[in-house]
Structures are given as C-alpha cells and as structure tokens.
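Running this now, will post back.
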Amino acid sequence: MSKRALKKYIDALDEKALKEQIIDLYERIPQVKTFYDFVFNPKEEALIEEAKIKISNEYFPTKRKRARKRRSVAQKYIKQYKLLGVDPKLLGDLMLFNIEVAQTYSDTATKMPDAFFKSMLVSFKEVMQYVSYYQLKEEFSSRIEGVIDQSESQNWPNTDLFEEVANDFVD
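Update: finished.
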C-alpha cells in the first residue's frame, strides 16, 4: 500500500474507528508499542543503561560461562534507538561503549578471530560517521583516542585502519 492510499484510507475512517485501529496496532505489534511507550515516556537514560547491560553481558556474562561476543546485539539496540530518535549524545555514548567493552574483553582474551577485529572496525566507522554528522567529535574525542590507543596497545592487526578512519573525519 502506498502512502497516498494509506492517507486516503485514514481520511475515510471516522475518529472512533481510527482510535480502535491504533489501539489494535499497539496491542498486536511490539514495535508500535515500543514507539508509543517512547513517545509518551522517553526514559532515554534508562534505555541506554539497559542496552549497556545487555552488551556487557555479551562479553562478560553473569548467567552463563562463555561469552557470546555478538556485535549484532549492540547493533540491534543502536538501530532501534536511531529509529526512535534517542538523543544523539546518548546514542554516541552507547556506540562507543560497545567498542570499549569489546576492547576490554579482547585485552583479557588469549586469541580473537579476525572477524572480531573487522567487526570492531565497522563499528568504529559507524561511530565516526555518527559523531561527525551530529558534530559530537569534540565531546567524544578522548574516548575515540582511547579506542585507537587500545587497538595499538593490544596489537590489533587493523590498528592502522582505525587511525585512518579517525583521520578521515578530522575537521
């Protein structure tokens, strides 16, 4: 259905029918519920803290023995919060937190697969694009430098690429 057809359909509904449809959508579709919960009660800090806990549990689990190290968990939250329109500073903080936790884990791990380093570089590029777009580079500059320094001190195979990405976004 096109947006135009949807507008025409909505215009044809009376107010009561429209309210019933919105309530039905709220009850049936979790994304709609999440959207309205956020719109009417945007506890952004609580959402970010919840996401940080989940991300930390990927690398430092409290209920199981082995770390899963799934980058997709963080990406799911980041994507969802972008759609909801969470404050860019809070989202930038979450994006950097994801990399920092992974680096903390990497520092203690004996051997990490190459895919880990590649995925962290992708995450770093996304952070740099995001903070550059929202002009938050100055606010996060020390943390960005910290990520680069950690990749160097841990002898990551793609450390030079982290520096290149950072340099690409220098004003």
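Residues 1-41 form one domain. More later if anyone needs it.
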